Amino acid sequence: MAELLGLIGGVVGPLLVLILLVVPLIVVHELGHLLVARWRGIAVEEFGIGFPPRIAVLHRGSRTLLTLNALPFGGFVRMAGATEGSSELDGWERASLLSKTMVMLAGVLVNLLLAFALMLLLAGPLAERGELTLDAVQPGSPAAVAGIVASDRIAALNGAPFDRFEPPLANIRALAGEQVSLTIVSSSNVTREISVRLRTLQEAADQGVLGIQISGLAPAGPLTRPADQVITVAAARTAEAGGAIIGGLAELVSAPFRSDSEAPTLAGPVGIAVGVAGAAERLGLSGLLQIAALLSANLAILNLLPIPPLDGGRVAVLLLRRVLGGERGRRAEQALVTGGALAMLLLFVWITLGDLVGIFTGVAQ
Description:
Layout: H1 2-8, H2 13-39, E1 44-60, E2 65-79, H3 97-123, E3 128-137, H4 142-145, E4 153-157, E5 160-163, E6 179-185, E7 191-197, H5 201-204, E8 212-222, H6 227-254, H7 269-278, H8 280-302, H9 311-324, H10 326-364
Antiparallel strand pairs: 1-2, 3-4, 3-5, 3-8, 4-5, 4-6, 6-7
């Protein structure tokens, strides 16, 4: 595993991240479409890993080909009878609106379930404790008065250890003015418990209630939780991941109307791959799984947007076609899917250009 993480962090790292981390999430998404299509009696002609041109046929089923394709950037499901006016009884065109809707939303559901499953692993068997590493301790602060120095590490607050994948001391301001217990680990790995009275919010101002500057959260061994707490934590993290992407999209939409100078940034597959590859060895296996869970939840929520050719957009178009009916409905569906696909392609190109500019600008600095 160490060798693989080292390789990911090397020159070919971003490509490996795409192949090993991003592409499987898309393939799983497409697998959801496949499984529900077959369950609802819709024939599937091809399940492709990657995009054409085709490299090999991995398996020939009674009706479905499993193929490996040359462009390793995702996957696809090709339904039987998907062409306009097809009369195949088990084809896409002849399927009911309910069946089509279920097929479209299956990918979203599978990505959410995958995100939750990964979060379960990270909250349970793979949970890790973290110890706060410090950059500095403010002179005269509650931390300094209690004897904390910059070489110390903070292992727990009020007896509760930190989870490596949760923001440390996120709720400490709620304890402002109170006496708290901190577990301190010295540079020589000697552990001691100290009691600290935090500043009040008025006293803290911009200094913080404890008076420390945090440099990071170092891994410090396994973290054990009761089973019910594991489920609760996993569900909360999955919901939080989905909520974060909604908030990010809201900021992106509102950016032109904001008076501040900061605009939200949006990373595409290239930016994500480069960023993850650069931090692979530091993140470790658990860190990479955490990113996979976040990406899977994000992929699910993004696909709910009512923009063709995303799943939510395809469902919206199906409903619109049903309302309009006949030839008018088919024309509207075709126009919206084509326009949406073009818009998504332009957005992908724009984001990718932004990723590349950021990468090369960073190298130049």
